[in-house]
Amino acid sequence: MLNGKDKGKTMNEYLKKVLENTKAKNIHEPEYLQAVEEVLTSIEPVIDSHPEFETNAVLERMVEPERIITFRVPWINDEGKTIVNRGYRVQFSSLIGPYKGGLRFDHSVNQSIMKFLGFEQIFKNALTGLPIGGGKGGSDFDPKGKSDREVMHFCQSFMTELQRHIGPDVDVPAGDIGVGAREVGYLFGQYKRIKNGYEGGVITGKGLSYGGSLVRTEATGYGLIYFMREMLKANGNRSLAGKTVTISGSGNVAIYACEKAQQYGANVVAMSDSSGCIYDKNGIDIALIKQIKEVERGRIKEYLNVHPEAQYIECTDENSPIWTIKTDIALPCATQNEVSMQSAQKLVENGVIAIGEGANMPCPKEVTEYFLEKGVLVGPAKAANAGGVATSAIEMSQNSMRYYMTFEEVDKELDDIMVNIFNSCQKAAEKYNLGNNYVAGANIASFSKLAEAMIAQGIV
Ligand code: NDP
Questions:
Q1: How far away, in angstroms, is 359 Cα from ligand 1 center?
Q2: What are 429-445's pLDDT values in tens digits?
Q3: 113 Cα to the center of ligand 1, angstroms
Q4: Residue 136 is among the residues annotated as catalytic for this protein
């Protein structure tokens, strides 16, 4: 992700070689290759000025996971039929702490998606300034439409295998798409039963009654808005107050991003799920969204039962309808590659000023480049959505201390972390004359820290 002035420059030979080898070795993993290419191309100025990275094979080691575990997950559904899913845990990097990253339960899960998420997680976790390595896991099991009993049986079977690979100082999973409080509870219960010990720090996102942290539920969404606040302030001293905001998804990240944006006086006019989006020009009724999504596990369309004046637009093709709505700030908070080039063009045409990536890799590389070229501010996922994992690390600390912080204390710490993350991205971008390209700034700041740790630890 080069600055305009660097376009046409030939790529650093070492970088080129590693990229080509990674492509050849992982030809069937498009999402993973996309994540690697995005990071590697944006850290070129750092590679140029550090020849010792090549001697120490820093990039070759950075793109090769320390370990990938795949396993069978058999369980019995409510009809008495045996179902077999596939489980994954990618233990990508333990350079700066135990592997840390969520579990995703979704029909789309495969090794490429697990590796891309694990790779991104290494950099994100480094940016938080906290001692956490990078990992990711999950299964092609989809909790949507399953009974609580089926979800519990699946989680118990999944943990029966996963438990031998994790631990509070080894690998600490958490939630992600399809893994919320219910799933984390069942997973932790089975872990505790097998281990015969209360290792609270083995998983984060736990319920408050058994070792969870206040603010963890809100953390990714709130953190995203804290990051956006800093980014807007640093660019023309603008604020969220009075801005129109659209947010894709209506899951954990989207809901709390909406709540915090509204607290800052923004007018959130649209949210979505994988079936369609709602547009409510009077401002989204977030209490209702919480009721539909967190309590009833329903579809976003049901919003119209209470607010018939709102509009529902069904998803019909690969371009999500939410990005056709005029907005100042767009927050993709659903899934990877959800903003197509066509959607990006529409957003720019409608005058968008800033994008905040709540989801992981919601914008393909060319879409991000297009936004940057058009002068749209981009808060990259690694930085902007790092509040979730940062608060997970705060949960781990509380579990170790056997002491629990107040909501205000955790929220203040989260806010401080997001300010620091933004400052790190800004400083790194400035150091390499990249202006307000925080995408490159985030990659450079985190990569520099990881490379230093890697060289210090020798060839392992
Ligand atoms: P949830 O499962 O709580 O919610 C996901 C939301 O996205 C749902 O509304 C879902 O709709 C929608 N969605 C999923 N797939 C698609 C799709 N293909 N097209 C349109 N909408 C879709 O997940 P989270 O909110 O936890 O995660 C959302 C994103 O944020 C992911 O990229 C995740 O990796 C990232 N993230 C999450 C963190 C966390 O703390 N939870 C931390 C950092 C990043 P439907 O109900 O129809 O499936």
A1: 7
A2: 999 999 999 999 999 99
A3: 14
A4: yes
